[in-house]
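Entry 0007
Protein: MFS transporter
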Amino acid sequence: MEDVEQQAHQRRGLDRNQSWVRVYAVALSTFSVVTTEMLPVGLMTPMAEALGTSVGVAGLTLSVPAILAALFAPIAVLAAGGMDRRCILAGLLLLLTIANVTSALAPTMGWLLAARVIVGFCMGGIWAIAGGLAPRLVSERSIGLATAIIFGGVAAASVLGVPIGAAIGDFAGWRAAFGAMAVFSALVLVVNLGTLPELPVSASVRVRQFRDQIVRLPIQLGLVTTFLFVAGHFMAYTFVRPLLQNTSGIGVEWIGVLLFAYGVAGIAGNFLCGNVVSRHTGGALIAIAVALTTTISGFALLGDTPMGGTLILVLWGIAYGGVSVGLQTWMMKAAPSAIEVATALFVSTFNIGIALGSLAGGQIVDRFDLPTNLLSAAVLPALGLLFAVAIHRHAASIANRPTAAPATSR
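Output (structure tokens):
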């Protein structure tokens, strides 16, 4: 009897371990696609030089896929219908591999932008579909942690994708960075096919559900805050490499190291925010707004030396590291019964922020200069502070509402 119980216990342990392997496989998918999206940030200057264009035009390699991701995220959730989610993820990862190969071989900016169009479709689809998979992979009590890990792939990619790409680019050229991501995406595809079970769905998301959610005040506050934080960040961060080289006077050999330091700082910010955001969501978002405004504007004022630029870059990484987990937590709280819909809206807004922020930044950099762009970018998270305060007050009002007294029997 003891042997039977022991074997049953071991099987349950193996099942739990297998469930978490699947969660990490999905997290690798989000990490892969967001890292691919972020690669041009650390490669902007050498790409522009190699393809004979300006840094502002090269910024389109970030804004174009972001725009398409914003359009495709809700469409992917609607079009997926009853299709097996495992098949959808596999198909999108295959497209992502092809897009990276095409980017590595692109002879002109036109070819590179065409490849980045494919990245946009993959970005919207993978992020939106993956966001709703946690309840399908783990037990109910583990859904929160599994969701955090899946979205952790997004957070890690946002802060590590740039330094990884920059380091590979400095060592072997910007084309090698895209080639490396093609290999990595292919490996992630194999991992997903080897670990994920079939993931059919019993009900499809309808347009009505998007309409019902987008008119709700908590969702609207989250989406506006998301746009202002992300657009302000990417107005400035898209051009972090020329900022470090031209404004701070840092040698090219140190760029990869400093961007990696930014990534480590971002991971630290992610965990710092993650430790408090579930209990103090509004307060965490207020702190992020203040930190982003301070670091972005501070770079324009104090980042004109190697020491100043390095210090502010690290603080900037800590500030931005909390953005994804903070905003994602609020969106899940705002729509606990429609997480897939809220995730798709969040992904769309996030990528609209990336697209418009990097596009506006490119225009300002080309027409004025880098410090002017920094000061302009800082205005957006400053405005976001107002909405973060509104979120804090809204959450507090809900928490302070009196609950109905329980009925008593007579």
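Curator remark: DSSP finds 17 helices and no strands in the chain. Residues 17-398 form a domain with the Growth Hormone; Chain: A; fold (CATH 1.20.1250.20).
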